[in-house]
Specification:
Residues 84-168 form the RNase III domain. By secondary structure, the protein is mostly helical. It has helices at 16-42, 46-55, 58-64, 67-77, 84-90, 112-118, 123-126, 133-138, 142-163.
Amino acid sequence: MKQYALEGNPFAGRDPLQLRRFYKIHNACVQLREAIKVIYDSAPTNEDINDMVKNGSQLEQSIGVSPAMSVASYLKMEQRSLDIESVFQRYKFENADLSVHQFVRYPVVTNMNLENLAFVHRSVPNMNVNLTEAQKTVMSNERLEFLGDSWLGAFVAYVLYRKYPSLTRAPSPG
């Protein structure tokens, strides 16, 4: 049974998995763009790595032989032929500029397990007599509901605190 996340737009009827896929890719691009800037700015040269391995402390030697340093050094060395930053510039990739947002009517959860868990009522795992109480708790949406309620309560408290800075407590009803 298909569920549709988008209504009243040209994409109605499309599989919502495409939307989830898009946001996974978009989020990965955002992270890649930030990461490549760090790599281009901070990656050591091969000479620096060799010096760490040959002349450094044990910590520096461990850092020098780590795959992360080798990958970062390679990417920096190949920046001219494989300039990932320029790809983002070429396609005018901006994190906040998403034309897709005009069609989305609810937050998109990119983790399918979390999205499914959000709709599992506590009665569903309770039907399985072979589960422990801890397993039943983890398999229902109650923890997510508690987290959401707590976050919402904190947000409302913050808004009220900012809106009424001189109040020391809530006014009495009546």
